[in-house]
Specification:
With 281 residues, the protein is of the alpha/beta class. The chain has helices at 21-39, 82-87, 90-97, 108-125, 131-141, 160-181, 188-197, 208-219, 223-231, 240-247, 265-271, 275-280; strands at residues 2-3, 6-11, 46-54, 59-65, 71-77, 249-252, 255-258. The protein is built from twelve helices and seven strands. The structure holds zinc ion (ZN).
Length: 281
């Protein structure tokens, strides 16, 4: 499959039923274009994608390796229908891993954090998810990334919550701070594009400081470096209630209500819009 600035070699399961070959290829196309739109190109020139099948419903066991410039293994259950594929987040999450260099074990949280944070944002920017659904998920799940008692900072606390949602919380706070400091002209997306465009892809081993220096240079700030120094070795509780209030995000009776008069409502709006579109308004 041709994708912007790249190619994907896809291996399909021998028997795709009840899905068709075209259903699966459409699913790959949508995920790859979510990611290409976010990064301005497909993250790597060549990806090997092996799709396997199992007896379950839905998409499972996505995993991304640095091998051969990028290898993704993912399973699609035989009880999966096309609406499950339309709702799938996992393939987009895995493809986002291609666009960031491999980190030492202690910084694994940033690899997962980027994939967890960028996946819904990229899908919203591509029109595959509503902004309300993104903020609903963030309001519901970001608290899972807060430090528990005994936490020693993101670099030293390798729990599931701190790795996935602690990393995502770091990305959300970084995105908002970059936008605050640049009058909403730049965001985390600019930093991540610059890291990818400087060669920071999955089959490169980088230190986190190198990636963050490239990202900060692209936004003309020191947000990533400063936040890393603050959050890597100490438990830092983020004032999420204050953050939602500032952005105009309110969870009311299980539904998301936006307050467009909130002081940073435009920052919230910019995050889920493609930058080219937002800057043209
Ligand atoms: Zn992941």
């Amino acid at each position: 499959m041709d994708v912007p600035d790249g190619k994907i070699d896809i291996t399909l399961p021998d028997d795709t039923a009840p899905l068709t070959r075209d259903d699966l290829l459409h699913w790959v196309k949508v995920a790859s274009s979510n990611v290409s739109q976010y990064y301005g190109r497909f993250p790597v020139p060549h990806l090997t994608l092996r799709i396997r099948s199992d007896d379950r419903a839905g998409v499972h066991h996505g995993v991304t390796y640095a091998r051969d410039g990028g290898l993704i293994l993912i399973s699609v259950g035989r009880k999966t229908d096309t609406s499950d594929l339309d709702d799938d987040w996992m393939l987009t999450h895995e493809m986002i891993h291609l666009a960031f260099p491999s980190m030492p074990r202690d910084q694994h949280w940033i690899e997962e954090g980027i994939s967890v944070y960028v996946e819904p944002v990229a899908r919203a920017q591509a029109g595959q998810k509503t902004a309300a659904a993104v903020w609903h998920e963030f309001a519901r799940d970001m608290p899972k990334g807060q430090p528990d008692s005994g936490d020693e900072g993101l670099d030293n606390t390798h729990t599931w919550g701190r790795t996935y949602w602690g990393g995502a919380l770091f990305c959300l706070v970084a995105d908002v701070q970059i936008r605050e400091k640049t009058h909403n002209k730049k965001g985390l997306q600019d930093a991540l594009r610059a890291i990818r465009n400087s060669g920071g892809v999955i089959d490169e081993d980088w230190e986190i400081e190198k990636a963050f220096a490239v990202g900060d240079k692209a936004t003309g700030t020191t947000v990533l470096r400063d936040l890393y120094r603050k959050m890597s070795n100490k438990p830092v509780e983020i004032d999420l209630d204050g953050l939602w209030k500032k952005l105009g995000v309110e969870l009311k009776d299980g539904r998301i209500v936006f307050n467009d008069k909130a002081p940073e409502a435009t920052i919230r709006q910019a995050i889920t819009m493609p930058p080219a579109l937002y800057n043209k308004r």
